[in-house]
Each structure stands twice: as C-alpha cells, then as structure tokens.
Write a structure and sequence with these properties.
InterPro entries: Calycin, Fatty_acid-bd, ILBP, Lipocln_cytosolic_FA-bd_dom. The chain has 148 residues and is an alpha+beta fold. The protein has a 10-stranded antiparallel beta sheet with strand order 4-3-2-1-10-9-8-7-6-5.
C-alpha cells in the first residue's frame, strides 16, 4: 500500500520549480524603470543611480529557504525566505516592507506591502532569460536578465 506523506513533498516540489530560477543573472534590458521608481516615491538621486546600475541577481535555495541576492556597485541586498511565508525586508531604497514570495504556475511572484501600499514583482523564465515585471499602482516596468 502507498504511504501518504504530508507537507515536505509539497515544499520539495515547490523548490524544484524554483530550480529554473536558480542561477546568476545579469541585467541586460530595463524598460520604464524610472517611471516605476518615481511612482514609488524614490528620490531623484537614487533614481539616477537606479537607472544606470546593472545589478547581478543570484538566486539559490538552501534547505527549505530561497535566497535572492542582488549585487551592484550601488548596494548589495539579500533576502532569505520560505515560499508563502511573510518576512521583513528593507529594500534598496530603504523602504521597510512585509514581503511574501510564492510560486504561481511557473512564475515566482513577490508582493511587498508597506503603509497600506503594495507592489508586485513577477519573475518568469522566457527563452532562457529571466523577465521581471514590476507593478505599482498601474505603473509597470520590465527588467530582463540573462544568465551570467
């Protein structure tokens, strides 16, 4: 007779889905990012830096946690989380947010909430590239990364 196991298999299969994202990614294209940052209320000087910075994103998983490191000449950030569990995050522009990352189909979806506001990042793999769509109050930016 088959043995039914609860819990861990779900986590494991979810992390297997994350494997497609596990790599080192270099920004190669950015569309409408300045407008997106402006909509968030990011100041002029920080936007100028954000527009010229080409970050490298390293995605991995350690045990049941996913780790996303964003590395650039401007600032390095790292988040570590379990899928579907809310965690505290300080963004590159110093917002203190509550973040949740989950898998929706083949997409890695991150929602940041603060002060009654919400922004959403959808990461998907298209033609071997990672395409990240950022949305805040109707303003959308698309950033495309290639494997480094």
């Amino acid at each position: 007779s088959a043995t039914v196991r609860a819990g861990p298999l779900c986590v494991s299969s979810s992390l297997n889905m994350v494997d497609a994202f596990c790599a080192t990614w270099k920004l190669v294209d950015s569309q409408n990012f300045d407008e997106y940052m402006k909509s968030l209320g990011v100041g002029f000087a920080t936007r100028q830096v954000g527009n010229v910075t080409k970050p490298t994103i390293v995605i991995s998983h350690e045990g049941d946690k996913v780790v996303i490191k964003t590395l650039s000449t401007f600032k390095n950030t790292e988040i570590s989380f379990k899928l579907g569990e809310e965690f505290d995050e300080t963004t590159a522009d110093d917002r203190h947010v509550k973040s949740t990352v989950s898998l929706e189909g083949d997409n890695l979806v991150q929602v940041q909430r603060w002060d009654g506001k919400e922004t959403k990042f959808v990461r998907e793999i298209k033609d071997g590239k990672m395409v990240m769509t950022l949305t805040f109050e109707g303003v959308q930016a698309v950033r495309t990364y290639e494997k480094a």
